[in-house]
Known about the structure:
The chain is of the alpha+beta class. It has helices at 2-16, 54-72, 88-98, 102-114, 116-126, 138-149, 151-157, 162-168, 172-183, 207-219; strands spanning 26-28, 34-36, 43-49, 77-83, 194-197, 200-202. Mean pLDDT is 93; it is low at 3-8 and 10-14.
Amino acid sequence: xxxxxxxxxxxxxxxxxxxxxxxxxxxxxxxxxxxxxxxxxxxxxxxxxxxxxxxxxxxxxxxxxxxxxxxxxxxxxxxxxxxxxxxxxxxxxxxxxxxxxxxxxxxxxxxxxxxxxxxxxxxxxxxxxxxxxxxxxxxxxxxxxxxxxxxxxxxxxxxxxxxxxxxxxxxxxxxxxxxxxxxxxxxxxxxxxxxxxxxxxxxxxxxxxxxxxxxxxxxx
Length: 220
């Protein structure tokens, strides 16, 4: 009977073990890219994206519930986000998204995309009134643009401290890492978003086309 009790105890402990939520895990890779989810996930999705890209924002919002809320959460898919910087506003947004480190990157990135229509319009209205910004050093330009767009204030409301933000915009090495991700992009990456699925480029897709591809890989 003792062995039976030990066996039943093991079964109960195994059944009670919580399932890990991989969507809460982000890993900074040696390249500086951010990997959301299980690093050992069998399906690996790479996205080259830009925070000023409307198609990237649409993908983020349309895919979030299923990609992060199910596929990544269960550890089946990982999403490696590589910045493809298009301008100083985009650089500033990337710095803000990464400013809280790996712990806050996924939620910050989603929030920036979700509010894109608001802050991008504000930036477009603000920029012509401040031509002096063109003469600023690159990091000061990036900070001025996100301040003018209202993005900095948005991130403060999300919990980033002003001193923390100032430190992030003084970190030249981190800015260089972000820009290098763009410089190191393959020649085939000519627009955003561009996706690679398990190492192979998947050109010209949105979430409606990519979702069945991911499901086929998961179930294959």
